[in-house]
Amino acid sequence: MKYEPKIIEDKWQKIWEEKKTFAARPDKNRQKYYILEMFPYPSGRIHMGHVRNYAIGDVIARYKWRKGFNVLHPMGWDSFGLPAENAAIKHKIHPTKWTEENISYMRAQLKSLGLSYDWDREIFTCREDYYKWCQWFFLKFYEKGLAYQKEALVNWCESCKTVLANEQVEDGRCWRCETEVIQKEMKQWFFKITHYAEELLSELENLKGWPERVLTMQRNWIGKSYGAEIIFPVSDKNFSITVFTTRQDTIFGATFMSIAPENPIVRELIKGTEYEKPVTEFVENVRKENKILRTDATREKEGIFTGRYCINPMTGWKMPIFAANFVLMDYGTGAVMAVPAHDQRDFEFAKKIGLPVKVVIQPPGVELNAESLESAYTEEGVLVNSKEFSGMKNTEAMEALVSYFQKNGIGRKVVNYRLKDWGISRQRYWGVPIPIIYCDSCGVVPVPEADLPVRLPMNLQFDNIGDSPLKGCDEFVNTTCPKCRKKAKREVDTMDTFVDSSWYFSRYCSPQSKTSPLEKEELNYWMPVDQYIGGIEHAVLHLLYARFFTKVIRDLGFLNRGEPFTNLLTQGMVIKDGAKMSKSKGNIVDPDDLIKKYGSDTVRLFCLFASPPERDLDWSDEGVEGAFRFLCRVWRLLDEEEKNFSHNSPFSGIKDLTGQETISEDAKTLLKRCHKTIKKVSDDIEQRFHFNTAIASIMELVNALYLIDKNDFKKDDSLRSVYFFSVETVLLLLSPFAPHICEELGQRLGKAGTIFEQPWPGYDEKMLIDEEITIVIQINGKMRSKISVPAQAPEEEIKQITINNEKVKDLLKNKKIIKSILVPKRLINLVVK
RNA sequence: GCGAAAGUGGCGGAAUUGGCAGACGCGCUGGACUUAGGAUCCAGUCCGCAUAAAGCGGUUGGGGGUUCGACUCCCCCCUUUCGCACCA
After folding, report:
1. What reaction(s) does this enzyme catalyze (predicted)?
2. A329 plus A455 within the same structural domain
3. In a domain, A404, yes or no
4. CATH number of the domain where residue A447 is located
C-alpha cells in the first residue's frame, strides 16, 4: 500500500474537527498549559514563516497534551489594518469582504496543516464582538487618566494625506509614493504607557523565560537614566529654562545652552527682537527635515544664537542660548546645558562657533588642557575648577551636587525615561473607532458604555486615500451629545491595530463572553501564557504593549498578575538563497504547492528538522524531499506485516525486561535503543525545543529497524515482539511532528484508540544502562584506542586493561606514565613522558 | 560608534556539565535489485600522506593562554547578522 498523504491527512483532519479533539475546558484538577503563537494578519495566504511558527507551537501543544496537561491552544486573526484598506481602493472591494475572504482561505490552509487548535475560540479583531471591547478598554483607560489627547509631531505624507507608522517610512520617504515624510503637529490620542515605565522595566528581571536579546531591546527602549533637572534663569526675562542632565558633575563647565528648535521657549526668547526672523527661519528649516535625517549622529551640528543669555546657577556666568538641531524636543526637557569639554556634541558645536571650552573633570594622571583638547573627555575623573566640589571624584560629586541643588532650589534629582506615551490615533478607516464625541457645549465626551460598540460604517466609498475616511461619512460623524443631547460630532480617527493585539491572548480565555471583555475566573485559570512563540520583529512593539495592557487589566481587577507571557520563543526567519523569502526577491515557496505534493506532515517535519527554532531556517527543496523520504521509510516499516496484526490491541505502555528471561541479545539491544530514544526525544522537546535532534534520533531508531532481518523472527519470537514495540514507539514519538501518518499507521498496526489519546511514552532508567561500555584511551590527550569493559568495572581494572592493551604497550615503549585520568564511563587519559 | 548573537565538511546542522569533533539529513561515490532507475535497499563519504590493510599527520574564522584534555573557559584580532545610535 502506497503512502498517500493527501488521503490520510484529509481523513484525520476530518476526525479531529468532528470530534473537537483539541477543545479546551478549564479543569481545576488538571494542570493547565497555555501555548500560543502570534496570530496572523490575514494578508491572503499563509507563508513559510507562518508554517514554521505554527509547526513549532503544534509540537509543544501535542507533547504537553500527551504529558497530561490541560492545553489551551487557540488561533485567531489580527484583522484590522492598512492592507485591507489599500486593497479596497485598488480593487474596489470592501475591506470587510477582502478580509473575510482571506480569513476563510487561510483558515483552510491552517486546517490542511493539521494544527491542534481549539477552533471554537477563534477571534477576529475586526468583528464587532471583539472591537467593542477595545472601545470598552479605551473608556476605562480614559476614566483612569491613561488615555488623553494632545498635540504631537507625527510622520506625515503630504501626497497621501495620512499619518504613517514608523515602519512605513523608508529612508525618510513614504513607502507608497516616495514623497519625503515630514513632521506634522496633530491632535492625537495617547495611552499613558509611561505610567508603567518603572514596572515595565523592573519586571523584565523576572522574565527568566525570555531571550536576553528581547529583554535588552526592551530595556533600551524604556531607556531609564538617572540625573538632575537644573534651573537656569534667563537674563532680562522673568522666566527660567530647566534642563535635564545625567552629568550634573560637569555643571561648572557649562558655558552655553542649547535648546530644541521645536521648544516653545524659543519663540518667547526671540519675540520682538532682531533675532526673531533668522531664528524662526532656522527653526522652520530644521522642522521640515525628516526624523531619520534629524537624528543621524553623524549629522553636522548646527545652531543659531537667540540673542538671549541664561545664568549658570553655580558659576554665575552668562551663557548664550542657542537653538540647535541636535537637541531633541521629546527627550528630557528639550533643553540642555552645554559642557563642551565633556560632551562630544557640545564640543563639536563649540569649536565650530568658537565658544569657550572649560575643563572641569581631570582624568587620573593626565592634565587636560582646554586649548589642546581634540575631543570631549567623557570618562570619569576628579572635579577641578568647581569651587568647593573641586577634588571630589565625579561619581561622588553627582550626589553632592544634587543635594546642593535641592537645598538651594536650583534643581532636583530626577529619573528620566526614553519611553514615550503611545500615540494610538490613526487617520484610517479599517480599525477600531475611538469612542469619543466632541460637543460644542460639553467638550470631549466619552461614549457611554451602554452605547458600545461604536460601529464602523459599512457604506463608505473607497476611491481615494484621504485623511480619516470616516470624516466624509456624515451618518457616522453626526450624532448627539450623550450629556446635553445637542448635536455633536464623533472622533473620526481609529485606533492603532497594536491596541487590538495587546489583549487578544486574554480574550482567548473566554472568547464568547457577551457581558464582559474577560471572565475573571477563566482568565485566572489560563493566564499567563506558558509559552508564546513569534518573530523577533515584535521584540519591542507588540510585546511591550501587551505587557502594558496586561498590567492595566490587572489593575482593573481582572487578573492577579501583570505579566502575560512566562516563556517566549522567538523563531528565526525562513531564508532561501541567502535572503528572507519575499515577493521582491522572487524566492517564495508556497506552502500550498508543497502540501499538495508531499503532504503537511512532510512540510512540518522539514521545518522542524532543518534547524533549531530560534535560528534562521535555510530552505532546501532537497531537504523537503529528504523529509518525505523518511516518512516513506516509516510507512514501509509495517507494509507487508499488516495482515499479521490483531485488531484493537492496546498500546503497549512501558516495555521493560521484567519477566522476559527468554529475550534474545538482539531483541534486548533493540529494546534498550527504544528506551534511549524515548529519553532523548522527551528531553529534546521538554528542555530545549531542539526538535531537529529529536527527529534525528527517531531517524536513527528507524535506521536500526531497517537493519533487522525479519527472517530472524521465525526463530526469535522476542525479536519480533520488540520490533513491533519499536515501530509503535516510533509512531508515539514521531506523532507531535508528523501527526497524520502516525495516527494512520497506529490504526493499521491494529491499535485501539488514537495516538493522541495515548500518554507520552515513559522510559525505564534501568534500560538506559549498558552492561558493556566503550572507554576511549587517550595518550597525552590524543585518542589512541578504544576498549570495551563491563560498566561496573572498577578504576584499577580499567587501568590494568589499558596498560595491557597491545597498542598501548607499543606506544608506551621507552615512556613513563606520569599520571592517569579516568573519566567514568567515558575515557582514560595517560600522561606519559 | 555602542551592544548582542553567530562563525564547525561540498550544504543544513550535531556534540546538553571541559572528555571519541562532524550525530541526523542533503549532496556525492560505489554496489544490490531491475527491461530501466531520477524508485528502493546496502555500503562509503572532514582534509592530506600512505594504502593490500593497519596506520600517520592535520582540522571547529585567525593568533595567544588556562588545562592531563578546549568547538566548549579566558585575552587579542577578523568576518557576518541583528538591535541601538546626537537620549544630554
Report:
1. tRNA(Leu) + L-leucine + ATP = L-leucyl-tRNA(Leu) + AMP + diphosphate
2. no
3. yes
4. 2.170.220
Identify any residues that bridge with A209 across adjacent strands, giving them in sequence order.
Answer: A567
A825 touches strand B (CB under 7 A): no
The verdict on A358 and A288 lying in the same domain is yes
> Of A475, A497, A519, which marks where a domain is finished?
A497
Q: Which protein residue lies nearest to nucleotide B85, measured between its Cα and the C1' atom?
A: A297
Would you say residue A177 lies in a domain? yes
Position A169 scores a pLDDT of 64
Closest by CA to A27, choosing from A515, A526, A542, is A526
Q: Where on strand B do bases come within 7 A of a protein Cβ? A: 3-5, 11-16, 19-21, 23-27, 39-43, 56-57, 68-70, 82-88
Q: What DSSP string describes A408-447?
A: HTSEEEEEEE----EE-EES-SSSPBP-EEEETTTEEEEP
CB A709, CB A793: distance < 8 Å: no
| A215 found inside a domain | no
Chain A residues 311 to 370 whose Cβ lies within 7 Å of strand B are: 325-328, 331-332, 334, 336-337, 343, 345
How far does the CA of A823 sit from the C1' of B17, in Å? 13
- Look at the pTM and tell me if it is higher than 0.90: yes
Asked whether residue A827 falls in the same domain as residue A735, the answer is: no
What is the value of ipTM here, to two decimals? 0.95
Residues 697-726 of A with CB under 7 A from strand B: 699-700, 703, 706-707
Give the integer Cα–Cα distance in Å for A459 and A448.
24
A192 is in an annotated binding site: no
In a domain, A60, yes or no: no
Q: Per the structure, how many domains does chain A have?
A: 4
Whether residue A754 is found in the same domain as residue A791: no
Tell me the residue type at A198. Answer: E
Spans of chain A below 50 pLDDT: none
Same-domain check for residues A692 and A735: yes
Mean residue pLDDT of chain A comes to 90
Residues 793-822 of A with CB under 7 A from strand B: 819, 821
Q: What is the pLDDT, as a whole number, of residue A428?
A: 87
Question: Do residue A308 and residue A385 come from a single domain?
Answer: yes
